[in-house]
Amino acid sequence: MSLATREDDPLGEGAALVATLCYMCSSECGLLVSEKAGKVRIKGNPAHPVNRGKICPKIKSALSLLYSPSRILSPKKRVGARGEGKFIDISWQQAFRDIATKLEAVREQYCSEALTMLFGEKPDHDVAYWFAFLYGTPNILDHNSLCDTSKRLAYKSVFGEGQERPLPDLQRPAWTNLGYREKHDCRLLILVGENPAEAIRYFWFWQGICEAKRQGMTLVVVDPYQTKTAKLADLWLPIRPGTDVCLLLYLLKNVVDSGAYDREFVDVHVSDFTNMQHELSVPVLDAGLTRYSLEWVAHMTGLEQQYLQRLSALVCTENPLLISVGKNGVAHQYSGFCTTRLAAIITALSGSLDVPGGLLLRDPPRYKSLSNSSDLLRAGQADKHKDYSGRFPLASHGVVSTIPSEILDGVTIMEGPCKGHQYQTKALIVTHGNPLLTAPDSAQWRKAMTARSGDGYQLSLLVVNDSVLHDTALYADYLLPMRHFLERQGVTEQESAIPLTGLRQMAVTPPATTRSPLEIYQGLAQAFDSSDGFAPLLALTGDDDWCDRTLGKAGETAELRMQGGVQARPIRYRKFTTQGFATPTTKVELYPHGAKTLAEQAYYRNEASCYAQASSKARFRLITGRVLGHVHSLTPLLDGASASPYVWLNNVDAQAKGIKTGDLVKLDVEGKASLIARAKVSLVLRQGVVRALYGWGSALSSTPHNYNINELIDSRHLHPISGNAVFGAVWVTINKLI
Ligand code: SF4
């Protein structure tokens, strides 16, 4: 196979086009893919509502991954020490037999919950949940706790079950229950730590923002760095990182005090409103200032009073409004949960919930993901989940950052009928994930993977299931060649304001030596001495069968294929009038989980004292952001397309430290770690902040000064209830390398 160019475009040679979905990020854009004589060409699908024919530069790396020299094309077994990356090719039969034998030994010698399965990317792999549950472990988790668990949990706590990701109504044109809508309705959009112009996530979101702005919407960006999105904003507020929660408390107080809320909505659909009014009206001193006052918020956020007043006036007059908080910018702060909660509350009180141009509640999902099959677990096993009954009972989809400590020190169950039960993680299966690079504290991961126990390793089995070699894969005992996303099938409920069910079709012929997720888990199940326990998994007859089960009806997958791989449904507004909210009170919850205050102490960090302490020790707040090319474990392969990453610092700070653009600088976290990178002096970054990029630093990379920022992140910095990694609470010193 070779990479097609425009000159030998197979589309011009009558090659069939297959409509499928991208999975280089979770936008899942519609693609049209052709393959002829071993040549593959990809273009955007103009009929797909998510991207309407557009694709981003990242998709180019989908082809480079397909043809990568690092592509894993046969099962491999480690022959050197972990981390050396020395492997020999083995047959599938041997790989399945070896792994099954070791998993049986783990279950016999320890317990079935000693197996943890981790996904970096989950789509199309849901059958792995059946394997895990039928083996007997509840410990199967995805990457959410490295991403936006705090944000999702916050929305769920305010709007109820099924509302982890309400979406902005900025997708046009769209069919709705109020008819066909072409024009945008949103009047004010506040992006808090979100940068959709660069950190491409939803094409429709950024396109919608640009169109709505042309139609009169005001755009406000709250971010310590003037991102590309902030450059287009009507108002840019370079806030102190981590203090967004104070800004939103101030705005909420003004909305309530000025009566700029929807009284009818509040009377019928909001619980505890009078308690909240009372809380906001009681004067409390904080840092010597009255909490929620203009002086207080200016002191906490470092923003000028005139701009705060301007923003407050906008929030109290413009409607519908949207406050969208960044998955990484905000959810990665200690106060990310509270910040999102407040954004949800202000949106709801202003009457902007589930209305045209407001925040859309999600429709009930069309299908049941196989991951919701924990009833397949033996009775009592669910209570041994390392997180849900462990340290993070409200964690969503499990906590990744604690895996190294669970390998080294073990798990203690802290709640439920198994309280006091202890075990150690002895086997780990990683599917399309690279935690060594993407999780906090890379050194701790290396330590956990290489810690010795007698003649062997403390973690007795590490399997990596992926399409390319990466840092974590270098430590694997067995590598299983997974199919590239263009070579496999799956169904998905897309992250789109227009409700969409999509089909990822097999668009490219897979190498014969690779296997689909279903084939891998069925092959593994069959290799157990007794495979009876895996009967439901082994009964699946093929990819269409498990997709049909997900969609809930035999023949649905074929039907979806006939419809071009995407089914769109109209947007339905004001769903809460008929279905209410799936919260304990059936209303919008202002004080969920027994919270006594809007910014509950347990979930909220008063950053003012941190900033005061940092300034006395000449420390900088470290912020990180995504790079265009980053997509979990695939990053190393994108190196060639990107320049060496920098760390940014403000020009005044740089001058004080004698640092110029291009200088080598050393970043230190006291008593933890350090790294070296090239500096870039910035006029548009807040003083006292260092900005770095996330997702670089592979040991396989040849890019110079290609730092891995996660070497500096402490894995103990986790949100106390969600277990979300708090990547944003790091203080560093920065000095020129002499
Ligand atoms: S935005 Fe994401 S899903 Fe869309 S083409 Fe780019 S990488 Fe693929």
TrEMBL record:
Alphabetized SMART domains for the sequence: Molybdop_Fe4S4 (SM00926)
Keywords: Iron, Iron-sulfur, Metal-binding
Gene3D superfamilies in the record: 2.40.40.20, 3.40.50.740, ADC-like domains, Dimethylsulfoxide Reductase, domain 2
Segments forming domain 4Fe-4S Mo/W bis-MGD-type: 15-70
Keyword Iron: yes
PANTHER family: TRIMETHYLAMINE-N-OXIDE REDUCTASE (PTHR43742)
Protein family according to the UniProt entry: Belongs to the prokaryotic molybdopterin-containing oxidoreductase family.
Full protein name: Putative molybdopterin oxidoreductase
Organism: Photobacterium gaetbulicola Gung47
